[in-house]
Automatic annotation (TrEMBL):
Assigned keywords, A-Z: Oxidoreductase
Domain (Aldehyde dehydrogenase): residue spans on this chain: 16-468
Family according to the record: Belongs to the aldehyde dehydrogenase family.
InterPro entries on file: Ald_DH/histidinol_DH, Ald_DH_C, Ald_DH_N, Aldehyde_DH_dom, ALDH-related_metabolic_enz
EC number: 1.2.1.9
GO molecular function, a single term: lactaldehyde dehydrogenase (NAD+) activity
Descriptive protein name: Glyceraldehyde-3-phosphate dehydrogenase (NADP+)
Highest taxon listed in the record's lineage: Bacteria
Amino acid sequence: MMKEQAMLIAGKWKHKEQVIQVDDPGTGEVIGSVPNGSSEDMEEALESALEGKNIASSMSIRDRMNILTKAAELVDDNHEEISQLISSEGIKTITEARSEATRAAETLRLCAEEARRLTGETINFDQMPGNTDRHGYTYRFPLGIIGAITPFNDPFNLVVHKIGPAIAGGNAVILKPATQTPLSALWLTEKLLEAGLPERVMSVVTGSGGEVTPPLVESSEVRMITFTGGLPTGERIAKTAGLKKLSMELGSNSPFLVFNDANIDKAAEAAVAGSYGAGGQNCLSVQRIFVQKEVEETFTQKFLEKTEQLITGDKKSEETDIGPVISENVAKNIIADIRNAEEKGAEILCGGTRDHCFVQPTLLRNVPKRHSLYQEEIFGPVALLHTFSSYEEAIDLANEVNFGLQAGVFTNHLQTAHQTIADLHVGGVMINDSSDFRIDAMPFGGVKGSGIGREGPHTALMDMTEPRVACFKMDG
């Protein structure tokens, strides 16, 4: 059933005459609508957050823990409902959506646990001569107002990764969810309120990013922007945000290195899963595969065999492995890029076709290095295959683009594994695993064009709070 969903501003659910339709990209069906918010709506949310930050900071650690834990329980209790919603409005198969819902509940619990561990440390003031009569400590206090901007590809768990630590730290938060997938975020908002979150602590403003985001980014009252999205948008935010904290995960172009001593069958399996999971619309997706020449033929054969077994189609079928890309225009652009690369000398080993929003899993060999498919983030079910002769060449190839989120490395040589950890310019190196691996508790982020800062409940909580020093002079 189509649902007309309101946005939450200043503690009230707000409808508007102008709405944005939410479509299922797999079927084209309109499944809901949300208000087409304006800059005035964002200004109202900012005004409310001035009160909300005081309410949030007055919540005890136990209050914050209880809210986050209860919200996790509500996600678990309504697991199939939110899974169906994630799948319907986005690009994930129902199996992938269920996994995301499970992870989101775990992330909420991790945030509750991190709230418990929000502690300071003692300072030895007497280490400096003349200060034996002083002692003190640090404790952490909230930043105040956090602005959160989230993408379409993980419309539920990535929202939790921003909202959860903000609440755990005692902050007010204003969320701008992705225009294509706002329903999951609003569902979560309802559950947080049901769990006891005071109304003015959180606002959710839906609408066009170009319209509602600038007041949020530019406001001097907002002390941190946490953003997941594309590099060009991240650069615009950085230029206009002013003096505030920034945490930005801006995607990647992940390298996947296969050395000749690796388990080739497992490497191929991991490469296929990492390349085509979530239809390749994952910042951690395997994109550039570099295989040592001696094992290229074996690896390629196994990769293609495993790819042929994948089923693309109906997201709601439990047999489906790959759903659609987010829109038909995106699908058209991906195919156009593939055709252009082919014209410039690339070889299509599989895929390279589409049916509406469904792009077949594609493997290209020898894409020219200057081509956009090689240099930029594809964000679709497309992987590139190249070879290397030596360790040094492999590292040079992996590092030569302006992204560095994570890398996958397959080798059974311990020295090679440790050396890649030192030499790869990325935020994470996954040994004998896909670059597309993450647990929600780990610090997550990248270098170069992949962003600044790290996500993960503990790391984000540290960013969303600040230390304050308390010093006592005993003879005052």
